From TrEMBL:
Transmembrane segments: 61-84, 153-179, 251-272
SUPFAM superfamilies xref list: ABC transporter transmembrane region, P-loop containing nucleoside triphosphate hydrolases
Protein name: ATP-binding cassette subfamily B protein
Classification via Gene3D superfamilies: ABC transporter type 1, transmembrane domain (1.20.1560.10), P-loop containing nucleotide triphosphate hydrolases (3.40.50.300)
Taxonomic classification: Bacteria, Bacillati, Actinomycetota, Actinomycetes, Micrococcales
This protein's GO CC annotations: plasma membrane
Ranges of residues in domain ABC transmembrane type-1: 135-311
Main location: membrane
Pfam short name (any one): ABC_tran
Amino acid sequence: MSATVAEPGVRPSVWLVVSSSWRSGRLAFLISLLEVVSRVLQSLNPLFVGFVVTGVIEHRLGLLVGGAAGLACSQGLIFLLMLIGVHERMHVNDRVGFAFDQCIGRRSGLTPTMDHLVDPAYQDRLQTLTERQGAMGMAFQSLVNTLNNLSGAVVTFVVAFLIDPRLLLLVLVAVPAALAAQRTASWESAAEAESASSGRLSEHLMKVLTSAGPASELRVMGARARIAERADRAVRAWRAPYVRASARGSALNSLISLVYLGAGGAILWWMVDDALRGRLGVGTLVAAVVVLGDLRDSSESMLWTTNLAARMIRVGRRVLWLERYGEQSVARHTGSGAAPSRIERGISLRDVTFTYPGAKKATFQGLSIDLPAGATIAVVGENGAGKSTLVNVLTGMYDLDAGSIEIDGRPLTTLDLAQWRAASSGAFQDHARFEFTARDAIGIGDLQTEPTDAVVLAALARAAATDVLRALPDGLDTQLGPEWGGVGLSGGQWQRLAIARGMMRGRPLLQVLDEPTSALDPATEHALFDGYADAARRTRDNGGITVLVTHRFSTVSAADLVVVMADGAVAEIGTHDELMAADGTYAHLYSLQAAGYH
Ligand SMILES: Nc1ncnc2c1ncn2[C@@H]1O[C@H](COP(=O)(O)OP(=O)(O)OP(=O)(O)O)[C@@H](O)[C@H]1O
């Protein structure tokens, strides 16, 4: 199900950046604002220059000394304050960026379901925040620069007014400059949104080109050049919107500068004429020339200021959007009921409709299945039939569009999801390779239990994986992963550790095994599943249900119930014998595979 999250407004986004920066270090925050003071001092310089020139020409010593002292002090202070301010700004920058990273990571980790991890809208926003290194820290940088430029501009306008009010006519140029700035900011924002998915694609292709996993496949297929070409195209597609936006922005900026130059030239001509006629002092004229430069800078900086402010707001908005996405997800899961201690009747899917976030077509449309208490159920079916999705919705990984999953008639949504998951356990084909010690890599499957030798060895035994110990020179305390100076394991060995991890919880209410044995040979898988089904039968007094997803039909004859899925629906359901007798799809595929093994 796709979440609909309202776009956050400007005010909360700015507040987020300001409050996060303040919280990241109050003193550093205040010190970094010294840069603003230095900018204000700099804007006073034309006044001091005017005093000096007038003092010299009119032989007014007080004016000369005051102007010179003002210039000397402001120059010294400007440099000092700037130095201290920039130094602290860098610190705050890093801290704010780190705080945002942490906040997004934490929020993503605490989100109860997996919807956001496969939702393109979520991933695109995350991409725009993370692809430009330090974009989140830059939000504070943008804030300080915005304050710098704004305060500098305001003081320059006041100084210009004091020197000669006519200079303020130039402020009129600031109007088209501000409009142009708005337009450039919207181009930049559109470019970020447009390039987000190409950015993700280029990162994905770079990972394919630079990681060990796909390396042999690419080399054997001779596909490296092709993938590199695709990566190039993706990088170009990612950069193109930025380059276009920046070129249009520069063109507009140059136009504004030309307008400014024309207007500035006209005003200066007017003032020079006045000076020649003796209506204006030379000191004032010199100060006007100096302030004209500052006014040009301020007018040009309007473009930057608006861009920087817009950038800061965009960062704030995206972070808030991601936060709200997470909050909404948490708010949707209000179930607080305790997980049952045993299952009496079973788990049922009732008219379940489910669409992956961003997908156009529903994977399940009114799916109903009854999984009886204490049963070991095998789920088979072609690729894309919906087997893994079934496992995912049973463990509450995604929100349903409609329908419900009920445990003894109680909707899963009324239970505390964390408790339901604590009562479940699982092993998956795309299992994680935790490069810890073997003990920790297995023990993480049940954090409530101390991973003593006895406990971990029992889990290994239940997973029929005891022989993996042969590959571990220091037994359970062997460090895994050559990158950490530990041992390297084969794909099958990693998979067996993952199954053992899934077996850490002794008697879960729901045990899902989603093709965890694909790297094992059929005989081992068969033996493992038979043994497991036997053990499950012996300990089924808590009504625990085991769901095994597999492509190997030979494995499933020991199951109490076989569910054959096709195109998101149940095509056949029954025991192995019933389905063989029905002589349908199952019987046909079973016979085909059996013939293949003979
Ligand atoms: N993240 C996703 N976003 C959109 N659609 C998805 C996503 N994951 C799976 N699907 C779609 O849902 C359908 C069921 O996929 P599922 O992974 O459940 O199939 P499966 O039976 O487990 O397949 P396999 O045997 O290949 O593992 C497929 O049509 C697939 O394209």
